[in-house]
Design goal:
This protein is α+β, with helices and mostly antiparallel strands and 431 residues long. It is built from twelve helices and 21 strands. Helix content is 31%, strand content 26%. The strands form six sheets. A six-stranded mixed beta sheet has the order 3-4-8-5-9-20, with helices on both faces. Helix 3 crosses helix 12. The two termini are 36 Å apart.
């Protein structure tokens, strides 16, 4: 039972964490239906009409539309995902699915990615409606399944089969943006205006099966190991976009450091350094290996999974170079391929997001950045909806917030959630 004295945004986030919605990929997930029903019940209590869409049994998506004061204005999609990556409980200092509040923090899988934002969305809308008010324009509230597997069984199917949910919408906000970083003891907020392209590939090596005691030159495991090591050691060159150039200029203005060395400049951002450096270049990280079934049997096939995040517009070039790196004997299979996106740091919605932060943390700059990962904004882009990352959080300077995405002991300060809910409510009231 969540402590009733806690702020509502914290209580809702804690409740959501207690739904184990672990997504193992490949259609193997749990808990999404129950979490969606919880969200739907909350929205129904606010007097909203809720729709569910379950294209695959138990892969549940939920939506409600909040009528705005001016329905002639384009609608805004405010969305989140209900699934999380798995958590190995033995690696954590707390139960990852207990939704525990201690030391001023909310702990648990999803506290950062992204049940925190889901709670902020729900309670912001609740604050507006309970006050007898309406948002400035229609809000489409959507909560998706399967985001942690590229959205192929979630947002991608919703966009394909329920496009009417998003009728009249031109823009969207979601996760991984709006949070603060500290640059040489000065605070700034990052607003996400783009995402790298996502390509998940499988490497396949084939060889001759045989006894483990033999001299054996055609070993699939050896071939695969060499290919994986080659990819893992590849360091892709810096390739800046308009967004990352603007990011560097913003960091330079705060730190006084030169823009000529992006990696060195990113180091001024403390714990966020690695997150920012990944936005300057393509990354190719081996993540899984599968080969063999017995100690003394040489298998005829070995496989590896590689997570590839690509600077937008360079996807085909990267795939071609990867084939060169691993050699002709290795087969590259594309498992998931999704678009990259980049939009200018300008316009009415951007101005509104910047202004809402400014009203609650005056004088602190807001800087655009390119997300090295991906969100369900990719799916919405197929409907012509421009997506941004705006989950506003004012964070302690020493908290490695970005390092907790998919990490151990994921947690977010209670005060940050309260701040974020105030900022988001402000935005939804005024934009």
């Amino acid at each position: 039972m969540t402590d009733p004295s806690l702020p509502e945004v914290v209580r809702i986030a804690s409740d959501l964490i207690r739904f184990d919605t672990s997504n193992y990929g490949g259609g193997n997930a749990k808990g999404e239906r129950e979490a969606a029903q919880y969200v739907g019940a909350y929205l129904e209590e606010l007097g909203l009409e809720v729709e569910y869409y379950e294209p695959i049994p138990r892969r549940t998506n939920v939506m409600a539309r909040v009528p705005g004061r001016d329905r002639d204005k384009p609608a805004l999609v405010v969305h989140g995902h209900l699934d999380v990556v798995p958590a190995m409980a033995e690696d954590w200092s707390v139960d990852p699915f207990a939704g525990l509040v201690q030391d001023g923090m909310l702990w648990g899988r999803g506290a950062v990615d992204m049940k925190n934002m889901n709670a902020m969305i729900l309670t912001s809308v609740a604050e507006i409606l309970r006050a007898g008010e309406r948002p400035e324009r229609d809000l489409v509230l959507a909560f998706f399944a399967d985001e942690e597997n590229g959205g192929v069984e979630g947002s991608a199917l919703v966009v394909q089969n329920r496009p009417e949910w998003f009728e009249g919408a031109t823009a969207a906000i979601s996760e991984v943006g709006g949070y603060s970083i500290t640059v040489d003891d000065r605070r700034a907020y990052l607003l996400q205006v783009g995402e790298k392209a996502l390509i998940w590939i499988r490497l396949v090596a084939k060889g001759r099966a045989g006894h483990g005691s033999r001299l054996h030159d055609d070993n699939a495991v050896t071939k695969l190991a060499e290919a994986v090591a080659a990819i893992g050691r590849t360091r892709w060159p810096i390739r800046l976009t308009s967004t990352t150039r603007a990011l560097l200029e913003g960091l330079s203005a705060l730190s006084g450091r030169s823009v000529d060395d992006p990696d060195a400049l990113a180091s001024a951002a403390g714990p966020a350094e690695a997150f920012l450096r990944s936005s300057f270049r393509t990354t190719t990280n081996p993540t899984a290996l599968t080969a063999g079934y017995k100690h003394n049997v040489i298998p005829e096939r070995a496989e590896a999974l590689i997570d590839v995040r690509v600077i937008p517009g360079t996807e085909d070039d990267v795939l071609a170079e990867l084939q060169q790196i691993v050699g002709d004997e290795i087969i590259i299979e594309t498992v998931v391929r999704d678009i990259g996106m980049e939009t200018p740091f300008e316009g009415e919605l951007v101005e509104a997001m910047v202004a809402s932060i400014g009203r609650h943390d005056p004088g602190v700059p807001v800087i655009p950045y390119l997300l090295g990962a991906g969100t369900d904004n990719k799916a919405l882009a197929y409907l012509g909806i421009t997506g941004y990352g705006f989950a506003p959080l004012k964070l302690p300077a020493d908290l490695d917030f970005t390092g907790m995405f998919h990490g151990v002991d994921e947690r977010v300060p209670v005060d940050s959630l309260v701040f974020g809910q105030r900022v988001l409510t402000d935005l939804l009231r005024t934009y």
